[in-house]
Structure formats: C-alpha cells, structure tokens
Amino acid sequence: MTDSAKTRPVYRNIHVTQIVSYRLPPAGIVSILHRVSGVLMFVLLPFVVWMLDASLGSEISYDGFTNVFVAGAAGLPAWFVKLVVLGLIWAYLHHFIAGVRHLWMDATHSVSKAQGHSSAVFTLGLSIALTVVLGAKLFGLY
Fold it and tell me: pLDDT for 12-38, tens place per residue?
C-alpha cells in the first residue's frame, strides 16, 4: 500500500441527526427551494386552474372569485386563501428566477464558486423582495 492511500481523507455522508446543523451554501439552498417551489406549483395546479376559470368565466363567477379573497370559501377564512396565494406567488417567482439563473449559467458557461454564490444570493433576495411587494398588494397594504 502506498503512502498516499494511507493519508487519503475518508468522506462520509452525514447522518440524519446532523441535517439540522449542516450549513448549506446559498447555491444549495436555491437548488432545494427550486425543487420545493416546483412541487408546490404542481400541487396547487388545480387551485390555479380554478382561479383562472372563475376569473374568466363570467361576471358572476368573477364576483365569486373576488369574494373568496374577502369572505373566504368552503369554511376557509380569507386570510388563509391569501396565504396560499402568497405561497403560490413565491413559488412562481422563485422557480422562475432560479430557472433564469440556471439558464444564464448554462448559456455563459460561467460556473465558479464566487459566481454561484453571488447569483444564488441575488436569486434569494429578488424572489423574497418581489414576494413581499406582491404580498403587500395582496393583503391590501397599498
């Protein structure tokens, strides 16, 4: 056996109990949230189709659609419906911005640790900022 084989570091997977204390880089967080946002949009797709149908069907269905955001529906309070829509807004914005980030990195072949870090922080910041702005509009703050 050679000396290099003896001194070679051994890499192990982390244990389930270490997941909470593991510090993921921003690019890893964006990657995981990209998947989460895609799943969230897929799960809420029937709700999105209902919103589209109710908002475009007729004037009466549009009035019912807007009333859901004021009075709620099916036993759900209006604030909960708005919270679900806010989650959908975040999912769309984050998925879109992260997708553009990946396309840009693929098109320019500029993949470095520093560039990945800065574009991930930009993606997180922009998606959260736009969600806050649109959430403020959704909840009637302006």
Answer: 777 777 777 778 889 889 999 999 999
What's the pLDDT score for residue 41?
95
* Phi and psi based region of residue 72 (left: phi greater than 0; alpha: psi -120 to 50; beta: remaining): left
Label each residue of 98-130 as H, E or C. Answer: HHHHHHHHHHHCCCCHHHHHHHHHHHHHHHHHH
| DSSP string of 35-86, one letter each residue | HHHHHHHHHTHHHHHHHHHHHHS-HHHHHHHHHHHHH-BTTB-HHHHHHHHH
User: What residues does 24 pair with on adjacent strands?
Assistant: none
Torsion angle of alpha carbons 89, 92, 97, 102, nearest 10°?
160
Q: What separation, in Å, do the N-terminal and C-terminal C-alpha atoms of the chain show?
A: 71
What the block records as the tokens of 98 is 């992260």
Residue 5 reports pLDDT greater than 70:
no
